Amino acid sequence: xxxxxxxxxxxxxxxxxxxxxxxxxxxxxxxxxxxxxxxxxxxxxxxxxxxxxxxxxxxxxxxxxxxxxxxxxxxxxxxxxxxxxxxxxxxxxxxxxxxxxxxxxxxxxxxxxxxxxxxxxxxxxxxxxxxxxxxxxxxxxxxxxxxxxxxxxxxxxxxxxxxxxxxxxxxxxxxxxxxxxxxxxxxxxxxxxxxxxxxxxxxxxxxxxxxxxxxxxxxxxxxxxxxxxxxxxxxxxxxxxxxxxxxxxxxxxxxxxxxxxxxxxxxxxxxxxxxxxxxxxxxxxxxxxxxxxxxxxxxxxxxxxxxxxxxxxxxxxxxxxxxxxx
Length: 326
What we know:
Blueprint: E1 15-21, E2 25-31, E3 37-38, E4 52-53, H1 63-76, E5 82-86, H2 97-107, E6 112-115, H3 124-130, E7 135-137, H4 145-152, H5 160-173, E8 177-183, H6 192-203, E9 209-213, H7 229-235, E10 244-245, H8 260-271, H9 278-284, H10 289-301, E11 306-310, E12 313-317
Parallel strand pairs: 2-5, 3-4, 5-6, 6-7, 7-8, 8-9, 9-10
Antiparallel strand pairs: 1-2, 11-12
Helix pairs in contact: 1-2, 2-3, 8-10, 9-10
């Protein structure tokens, strides 16, 4: 039997999914920034070390190109619950962010979410652009400077106080939904006192929701970084409003048949952005699990992906040296 031929690697595609999101349902992702360009070098990042640490914004790709890719994705279906601006780096580094959001809103009535580390909201231009989104989800992983440096490994121009002041200012200007994510990493910010410090600083931002997370996906810290669920649940009451623990991925209904070659292309594009289990990929691509397994085998044989074990779960990842936007 002849092995299906695959198209060139999907490195230049910036729109992917819809993928199952723990907080947003079916999310159509838009990747705005080249691989690992970020103001942080977070210890827990599933994409590995930051390759370019910066606070400078750039127009990495024309907004019109991104809008056209979104339009094509919406035509192909399935329709997502939300369009999420995120991806391989910090999306607020994308200089035409506001122009892009306005163009997406002109294209479709689907809500636009911005998934950000929150590092750049001290900049007025970032706040103005971000305020055009419907949902903004920044992160806050530390309640004091020492923890901030240990967890987020920020650009030299950033301090925790500067970041929080920016988020405070944004809260006063933003009319949409602000959800705050707190990533809790065992051994770095998981002591009770550290969690109380984060909860205290979070109150300054007045988020609509607070979500506790822990790095269950493969990272350079390994599975030892994962915090037990009962501890996350125990800390929820320390926050105002009371925090919630982010649940596992929600599935997308209706698996559909597709050719192995076509599925492998879509699968590689998905894995270039985030590690997935067979179940994650099946749900995110609306494909039968057995078809996903066949496509994974082709990509593995060609050395384009690898397996990583995280506890009892097997994730498939694109090796860092082959990350998107190289």
